[in-house]
UniProtKB/TrEMBL annotation:
High-level lineage: Eukaryota, Metazoa, Chordata, Craniata, Vertebrata
Signal peptide span: 1-16
Superkingdom field: Eukaryota
Name this polypeptide is given: Ciliary neurotrophic factor
GO MF annotation list: DNA-binding transcription factor activity, RNA polymerase II-specific; RNA polymerase II cis-regulatory region sequence-specific DNA binding
Keywords: Activator, DNA-binding, Nucleus, Signal, Transcription, Transcription regulation
GO biological process, one term: positive regulation of transcription by RNA polymerase II
Source organism (scientific name): Cynoglossus semilaevis
Subcellular localization: Nucleus
PANTHER family according to UniProt: STEROL REGULATORY ELEMENT-BINDING PROTEIN, STEROL REGULATORY ELEMENT-BINDING PROTEIN 2
Keyword DNA damage among record annotations: no
Length: 232
């Protein structure tokens, strides 16, 4: 029953990384429930605290510790934090269901984690595609030009299609990101958005990501005016 004592062990640990992992897990646990009012604030607070401990860990160079495993865990936690922050932002949509610009604290937290990710990819060059995807996300969160954002996303998707390190699930999240916030006229020829979403839907079904699959299906329904679009 050692796991019962994990929080206490983590609290007295002199290392920041276990604390970042624990706080991220708490934030994820909270995110599984409907987030309103204080719940959303607390969830973001856990993210920010996890981020603070993570940056403290990242600041220790691998040349000082010689521990490459720690750097790998830091990379994983940083990517997961950014993914969670993206999900929280998307869930706080406007009246039409689409996420609007993030508020200042939310955007600042994302940018801090993105800076940590950039630093970590100096050790893991194969993770550069993660930086590109999250950089595109932060543009959307900041309310940047949708036209330029769409160009960046398409560039990212083309690179990932030829990148052996790119996982299908990550590409799917890029597809969802490309389809959600951009005006319909930007996606040509007609039906391009539907084909992207159908591809994303198939991948999400394969990897078992139920939440993103539900999100994808809702976008497809809005796009089709309530009529299901068959995957080609």
């Amino acid at each position: 029953m050692t796991f019962l004592f994990l929080p206490f062990t983590v609290c007295i640990s002199s290392h920041s990384l276990p604390k970042a992992v624990l706080l991220h897990c708490k934030a994820v646990q909270m995110s599984l429930s409907p987030l309103k009012g204080e719940g959303a604030v607390t969830c973001l607070s856990h993210c920010d605290r996890a981020s603070s401990f993570l940056r403290s860990s990242v600041s220790v160079p691998v040349s000082q510790t010689g521990n490459w495993l720690n750097k790998g865990v830091e990379l994983l936690v940083c990517d997961l934090l950014l993914t969670l922050r993206t999900s929280l932002w998307q869930r706080c949509g406007s009246s039409n269901g689409e996420p609007g610009p993030a508020h200042g604290a939310q955007l600042a937290g994302f940018q801090r984690d993105l800076s940590a990710l950039r630093r970590l990819t100096q050790c893991y060059r194969q993770a550069q595609h993660k930086v590109f995807l999250h950089e595109t996300t932060v543009r959307l969160m900041a309310g940047a030009s949708p036209t330029r954002t769409h160009q960046l996303l398409e560039h990212n998707l083309r690179r990932r299609a030829h990148n052996s390190y790119s996982a299908g699930e990550e590409t799917t999240h890029a597809l969802l990101l490309a389809c959600r916030p951009l005006p319909m006229p930007l996606l040509t020829p007609p039906g391009h958005r539907a084909r992207l979403l159908a591809e994303a839907k198939r991948t999400l079904e394969r990897v078992g990501d139920r939440r993103s699959l539900q999100d994808c299906q809702q976008i497809l329904l809005r796009l089709s005016g309530g009529t299901t679009i068959a995957a080609s």
